[in-house]
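Hey, can you fold this one?
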Amino acid sequence: RSPFDQDTARKYFKDTDPQRLQAWYTQDVGGWLQAHQALERERIFVLDSSLLTLPDNPRYEQAAQVPLDEQEQYATHGTPTWCYQMTNLLHVSTTKDYFLFTGVRLGPGSASGLTEGKRLVTSYVAARGPGAIRLLLIDRGFVDGAFITWCKEDQQIDVLVPLKSSMAIMADAAGLAGRPEHPWQPLRMSAKEEQTLLRKEAAVCEEL
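Sure. Predicted structure:
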């Protein structure tokens, strides 16, 4: 919750340059969180991009019309919709159920999420230094060979792409899991998980 009404904040920042405001949040707020030991040593982050739809009003600055379907997802023959694209960098806790917004970029809905994501990571790492991000979780919007190579080689960031049930590689892993060479291994559960789960296991399938 905010200590004052959000409309007050909007009016207060009315004359603030948007790029400077976003840079302040990504660079200075991230530093404040680190100084107060809010960021865990594992330095696990999520890079996420989503569209923010707007009312049918062209007066929204730097907004763009993008064809969207009924689920507000991009569709070639969708309905032209005014929107922004928000790209977030989130720090994920490995011990507690929370995450922190450590960086943000807001641009027109037609902007490249890949380009915005790279700019966001660059800005954050430049302010925090090498090792600021050790593991970066990305979704399919950021699955790009050049981007992943840049993360690994130029920024020393390991990259993890979570699998979805519709992916062929997920079907391969499901078929291999449980075989003698890929046995199920028990995992430690939290007290909260023990209330609802009988057990939790994982099978590691390498070189898919």
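Residues 18-35 form the longest helix (18 residues). Let me know if you want another pass with a different chain boundary.
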